[in-house]
Batch of 3 targets.
Target 1
Amino acid sequence: MSTVPMEYYLVLSAFMFCVGVAGVLIRRNAIVVFMSIELMLNSANLTLVTFSSYLGNPIGQVFVFFVMTVAAAEAAVGLAIIIAIFRNKLTVNIDDINIFKW
Amino acid sequence: MINLIYLTVLLPLIGFLINGLFGRKIKNEKIIGTIGAASVGISFLIVLGAFIQTVALPVDQRSNTVELFTWLSVGGLNVKFAYLVDQLSLTMALIVTGVGFLIHVYSIGYMHGDKGFWRFFAYLNLFIFAMMNLILGDNFVVLFLGWEGVGLCSYLLIGFWYDRNFEKGTTSQAAKKAFVVNRIGDFGFLLGMFLIYMTFDSLNFKEVLSKATTFPVTEATFGLIAIFLFIGATGKSAQIPLFVWLPDAMAGPTPVSALIHAATMVTAGVYMVSRTSIIFASAPAVMMVVAVVGLLTAIMAASIGLVQNDIKKVLAYSTVSQLGYMFLAAGMGAFSASIFHVMTHAFFKALLFLGAGSVIHGMHDEQNIQKYGGLKKYMPKTYITFFVATLAIAGVPGLSGFFSKDEILWSAYANGGFIFWLVGMITAMMTAFYMFRLLSLTFYGNERFDHHHVHPHESPALMTIPLMILAFLSIVGGYIGLPKVFVGEHGNLFESWLEPIYEPAMHKLAHFGSHSHFEEIMLMAVSIALALSAIYFAIHVYNKKPQIAENVSAKFKGFYNLLLNKYFIDEAYEAVVVQPIQKGSDKLLWKYADVKIIDGAVNGLANLIEKLSGVIRKIQTGATHSYAVIMMVGIAAALFWLILSL
């Protein structure tokens, strides 16, 4: 198990995070943006687990559970919001959702 | 009873609260009137008990303090809410609660059927509460609380009939005038208080008065304090130059004129001068100012009273004039004589006003004495009591007014000189004249009212019984202060009773008694003769030969008009003080300072912010992506900074 160097995990995590950021910034579909955010969260989780494992400190893993719990709740709320928006505006394109504009 | 003295303040307050809060619901006039009168009546009994208890004490223990609680404690300033029960405050408290109680009872009859009945009694009780604080307070701050409180009640009661007209304006205008003019005086009084605290480091009467005799304070400081306090007194007690509010105060119901604007509140200034007698005695120049102002006020107001035709106006100017007498006495160092006159004046002037109220009541709110006449047979009880009061104020020997007025005139002669006596004597003659003019025009002669519309009738017993009690007091009230020339050095009970209060002041003044008894008796005889001749003259003119009055007024038309228009003092104040302030406020303060500068600054700031935000708000695009990019860049920058700074 310890044959895989830590850097691999970290690079993978950084890559996932960048994919998430790119998705949030580039895509217009709210659901895709939402999924990208989940990706970023999971990349952060991966980093936490990695460090926890290599440093032999379980706190990182405990932390991950919390992140996952919050992410689950956030997913439920976020999806509900997106559905509500869709029912009102018949679109999930975030460029069309700008009612707070001045 | 001395320890219960706080109840005399508390009971009227409770009466005020009950009538003020629930009076509209209670509605029943008997209950409201009983609460109002009883609270003052019980207070009177308590004061009487405290008085009897104090009389029984030896002379050096007659001054007691009743402490309630610490009111203010800030730095070196420590003000206790405490009442001082001594000879002076007891005397005043007896007058206020005694006369006040009679007037409350009278008011039940007088205000019968008025839609503001409950409000009237609430205000009257509030007034007694404030006045008792003024009298009993053991320091300047409690006195000032009462001082402002009576001013407030005076305002409320002058404007009591706020929907009625009064002369050229409304009663509210008269009320405002009283309040504003009083505030000018109060400002002087406040300055005096500050100066006292600066000089003596205390506001407690006992401390200040004892320090005033021992501290090395210059006469100039004393003079400044005294003049400020006296300005306060001129406001409250209607002296030149602040007397203009009192005649207008007659816009209120007549019992108010009797209680507040004749018998009690207006004597607050005299009481205050008397209480701080040592400060005044330490400033001889100011004493002279007090005496001269009092004398001028007395003769000026009396001369105006000669020609007025409104029954309450005559009495109002008479009050101003008599208050001038009290200040003349105080300025001459005869403080106990001034308080003696406060007392006798409270009796007969309250009686005169209540009698006038009874007449007005019977004549359906007609106040012009030219439209009275021959009322003697319609209102016998009112007539007899009014007659007694008129005799008393005119200085007819044997009645209370004679003794107090004579003592003042004698002190004016002994300490001031012949001129003071002469002017005082002329004033006394005028007083006798205008009072008998009033009496003749009202009760004697032809009936000049319209018989079809006006049916004069005697007032109910609730009103006439207080009149009779006051008439009795007006007769016998003087016998506690008989002239020393008849009864010896300690025969004047009133003066020996108050002597300890004024002892330090008398010690400083010490210029009494270089005149012979013969002189005093001579002057007394002269004043009696002059008063009687003035009375005879008035009755002769207004009863038998009315054309004399018309001839005289036609002959001296200019002077007559001057008097009738009250020396145009109101008009002069209007032109010199009121108009410039009004114009200045309108043109400069409102249309320039307020509109241009203050509003301009506020609006300008708002405009500036609006323009700036018009530029800044463009940042809010509403596009989610731009927010996300900015957030990302921000987080990245923050991370970089963190990593670099490690």
Target 2
Amino acid sequence: MITQVSTSLYHQLLAVFEEGLTSKGHLEQVVTLRKEAFARFKESGFPTTKMEDWKYTNLLPIVSQQYLLHDNIPGKSVDLKKAFIPGLDAYQLVLVNGHYRADLSDSITEDGVFISPIEDIVDNASFLKHFAQYADKTDNPLVALNTALFGGGLFIHIGKHVTLEKSIQLIHVTSTSEALFNQTRNLVVLERNAEAELIESFITNDDGTGLNNIVSEIVLEENARLQHYYLQIANEQSRYLNHTEIQQARHSLYNNYNCSFPGAQFIRNNINVRQNDSAVESHLYGITLTAKDQFVDNHTIMDHRMPNCESYEWYKNITQNTSTAVFNGKIFVREDAQKTNAFQQNNNMLIGEKSVVYTKPQLEIFADDVKCSHGCTMGQFDDDALFYLRARGVGEISARVLLIHAFAFDVTEKFSNIKVKAYVDRLIEQGLVID
Amino acid sequence: MLSIKNLQASVDDKQILKGLNLEVKAGEVHAIMGPNGSGKSTLASVLAGREAFEVTCGEATLDGKDLLELSPEDRAREGLFLAFQYPVEIPGVSNINFLKTAVNEIRAYKGLAPMEAKEFLKRVKEKQKLVEFDAKLANRSLNEGFSGGEKKRNEIFQLAMLEPKLAILDETDSGLDIDALRIVANGVNHLRSENNAFILITHYQRLLEYIVPDYVHVLYNGRIVKSGTKELALELEEKGYDWLKESVDTEESAAL
């Protein structure tokens, strides 16, 4: 069923694939996966608001225009200043319009670490084992599209027992003067007992419209530990469709800190965590501060499949002006997932009188011996608290900043990296619209 | 120091203060008593600048500065302090960070550089001791999970830290047990000096046994209807407010 025969981008993409633009030098296995994925996308088309998961998230205006499908100036110089995090000592990896730029990136020489542009991988057992095995199992048409037609991205492989000495900061730069559609594909594998911190910053150069469709698959093998940050600070011309699929094996730990700030006009994040074995722990934290007519949608799935696992999820939205935030938190507790301990909390502060929040906790529990709790609050600025602070001599602006930090505190205090925490606190402060 | 003349104020179009006059000089402690609904807390809120209250007439000056024209923060920076009847819990704002911000914003207003961290901490320790305020509480989120007594002590701790010219204590004694009351009163007595002044708003004579006022006023129906010395408080404790209410009500109806 093709519901959007009229969308320009859809037809552009159809034409491109049928011209046979894919499968340069890849193994037959990968080529087959990409062809199958394309067939799926061709059939479904872009998601529409008729789909429950896209009810509030209308892609139609975004995909109804023409885009360049390839960066017209590869190798252009870019400005990375905006992604700078004071005091952070990290390996810097840079993707410009989805393509890895070795000239802007640090080489990581630690033993057991393998990093390669995804399009260059021809034969790698770990890559072939995991590539397109997880995200494509979901019904997100954007994943199928990405699998079929991604242009660049990274394969990051951390070998067993390796603890990375420094964090990796992966900077996604969108740089274009014309409307450009980027599709980036990442695969991150942490082998047994590996440990890493991955900080992804999303920034923009130039003022052309950039539509980014980014899919990341993350595999944590036994006892692997990953701290994973999303820092979304792109400008108003940019649009992001992110899908992150995490696979966790026994005793592994995955922490995601998903932060969005005023800027990018349209953001949809899917973060799906699959606990595939027992004794797994996952934490999902989110802080979203929106302004103007921004739209930020966070859809998470916490999938408890096996017994004795824990998950902890806390998302905070602060909406200003006429912006919109969406939170949809699905928690599955499958039949086998006895003794699950799952917690979910979503708090919203609507500052803009005309701002909107849609929130939906969605718990589906099929096991009977579990502990699951969820809560959701909607509120505004606490005028009593504001007056209390002002009555002590704290100016109105400082008082508002203090209160916003306080609201975000439950989430920001959980940040494992204090440099990133301080940076995020500052971005919150800078993102406040004081009139 | 504080001069209030013919102050009239209303909330939601209902007039609460109906021409209140009060003069407070440096070094003095004034107690304002009165039955429920007489306008005591309204007076405190109006002076501190709470937005819900509308001043319809009259003036209030602090050392010549027109308070009613200033924002709540500027009133505080000019040296006014209100100890809240119901201190607000603000999870996520640390007591100490908040105080540091307050101290430094008040200093900036006076053209002073921010206080050195070392000096600030020294002052914190000194004042904590003065008001017997647990250091653990000082490091927690502002009033979060504090008992009623701890919240009131935190108000006095803040008072000690900010060293205002004029402090208004709005029913600081309500909900306090004897020990907490003694601690709060000791704190205030230590802070009393010839350069500052206090207004104690209270229902009970009990507080005035610990903090001895120079003047006692009775507020009724939005006006001060009787003023005297500390003996007036004792008289009120003994007789209640009814005898005063009656004479005032008779006077008012006679005037009509």
Target 3
Amino acid sequence: MLGFLCQNSADLCADFAGMERKSYAPNFFPVRLPCLGGLDAFFLLKAYFSGADGVLVLGCPPGHCRYKRGNETAKRRMQVIQGLLEILGIGKERLDFVWIHPSEISKLVEVVNGFNERITKLGPCGFFQSEDQAKFHWMTELKKCDHCYQCKEVCPICFCKRCYPESFQNFGLGWLVHVIERCTHCGACKDVCPQGIRLFEIVQLLQQKMSELNLLPLSFPLPQGGEKAGIVNITK
Amino acid sequence: MKKIGVYICHCGTNIAATVDCSELARFAGTLPGVKVARDYRYLCSDPGQDLIKKDIRELGIDRVVVAACSPRMHEMTFKNLLSSESLNPYFLNIANIREQCSWVHKDRERATEKAKHIVHAAVARVSRHEPLEARKVGIKPSTLIVGAGIAGIQAALNIANGGMRVVLVERAPYIGGHMAQLDKTFPTLDCASCIFTPKTVEVARNKNIELFICSEVADVKGYVGNFTVAIKKHPTYVDHRRCTGCGDCMEACVLKRGVPSEFEEGMARRKAIYLAFPQAVPLKAVVDKESCLFLSKGKCKKTCIEACKAEAIDFDQKEEVIEKEVGSIIVATGYDPFDPHLLPQYGYGVSDNIITGLQFERLSSPSGPNRGEILLKDGTVPKAIAFLHCIGSRDENAKLHCSRICCMASMKQAHLAREKTGAEIYEFYIDINAFGKGYQEFYKRVREEGIYFIRGKGSEIYKRDGRLIVEAEDTLLGTPVEIPVDLVVLGTGLTARRDAETMAQVLGISQSADGFFMEAHPKLRPVSTNVDGIFLAGCCQGPKDIPDTVAQASAAAAEVMSLVTKGEIEVEATISSIDPEICAGCKLCIEICPYSAIDFLDIRGISSVNEALCKGCGACTAVCPSKAARQRHFTQDQVLAEVEGLLAV
């Protein structure tokens, strides 16, 4: 179990829990962030790809964010990512988002232990057990990736200086998520894969599925009713 | 190749009891890039620090991981150590294996396992740390103090007498807060106004103090050293530069019966235009919008305007918002007395002659409604009085905390009542909390004065044959008792202000479970908050008696003065930047930034971070689709490495 903790609320609360010697499940590993507004979708995916069975995101209650509205942004982003987790066959119940006030020590303990129970019941995290896999076989296909990075080389929108998906065990999947909201359907990746992964089709499929579920843009979920700007228009 | 040194602290037995430190050090030594891994009893001690210094010098260690307590405790200590050895302080990483590991887990094997993961993550992260320069910002020399009770006044005087500017904001029309309402103070029985009035007068006279009454803090922006505060000044409908405080307007006000006076806790009535009390500072009349016939109903002969020789009354006054620039803030907003209506078994507000502790203070005060005589509602002298402790405190159905002052206040009031009326006095208590200097002696003295102490919490008050019956269980005798009395004084507890949550949100500080504002550390930083530059004084942090409040206020003043004297402060270097070569100019970051700290450079078609405004929340990094925005010290690379390390098998 991995936890992303806001340093102004949940992480402080975890320190207080220590001072009061309030015990919780020892398989809970905390990561401290300045604000959950900076919690990248990538950090979460990385957690699942590195073997986490569940991720708990703990931030300050509404109105208490030291950076005005980072907690609310994070909450909306988590909802979107839960949708993505469903598509990836990980399951949205493996991600939970809870408001924790620094003084809510017993709540923290309850939340961690409760989540631990849930995750223990769910068992180890698997990517390839959903219906989608049966339908599209794309997860199995992505497994074939042998990290040659050809797709990255030809992709016109891959312009990061350092490639983050490279550090993923499943590079293909990381790459997909990284480009999903920006892909222009140019088709350059169609025939480059030596393993024969049908990347172009998978990108289209994933994009279609995500927009069906209203999950795009992934990194910038706008408030409900808010005007969709920026990335969506670019994609179109 | 980086040379990483890993140092595991035993913290006496705090860590070593649950985590196998030597095994942890052995494990750390096997991690990539680790040159040396050691464990030591107390790393924060001088010999512990020397150990690290020696390795830096002799082994050329250039990255340091300290696995110890929370970074909130000693991050600064070790950052300073690195600086003193000419290493960049950001080449340090603290692995929290105490608060978030050894203290919360009991199974030694599993705790050690978790500690290994934490250390692994810290090592993976530290090797990716980049050198950063702390930024320095100037400190504005003036201070905002919210609330002018004894805490606010003490802090204001301390700072102002040190030659620095103070902006003192008070919601009421007078300064002094609850202390101004008290009759005498325990245990010395000093008259509260005699020791207090000189201070309030000094505040009004001090040139360094700018006082805003009938005002509230509406908004706080900025950070330590550079806060911009918006003060909302409610209209008083009296020009205070002209008002002489003569009181003619009060006489002239046509509101016949008046309304209950807030200052007198409803024991007396006041007019719509009024002076709170004769010794009020500043002694200026104010108009209460709610009860003024002209302002609420629009029809009044406005006799007050005729009566005012100074021509000070001005019904056209409007609410003003004043902006002030300050470097630090002291919160001294005080407390609300517990509302005994919430515990109906005590009959408060139902039967006459059941009053709260503060109402008793007014009754007993020589400047109060009865000129200090303790009389019942019908004007007779009570023959028996009951004092009930812990009303609303130490009560599962009300507030769980002990309000600390009520035992002493009740005993002081019992002493005064005994002295003034000769009545039989009963004190109903659970435990006597006589914690301060001279308090236990005072308790003994009061006991010897023939006051009956009944160990048992009053459970119910009702009327029988024209007298009030207090029911309780005497836990020493083990029998229920029913005591008939004429007057009941409820020792109401201290609670957080009703609007404490709003205030906390405006300031960005936290509250404890009991609603009071939370200090940065319960023992070692009881005056600071989790926001740098904002300090706490008095009962807004928790129930306190006057000496403790004054001490904390002076401590807060000292904190402020040490900031101001330093003149500048280092702020975190962990802000964002945008790589101009990657940025596509989608402007998503501009939209998400809560501080409008990102500008769009039209000519180049890219976004750029204004470093002076950036607070380092990282929101822009998460939305950036091409990851051009990165937050220093929390880059994707670093966090991903940490995640990977935590989950490494």
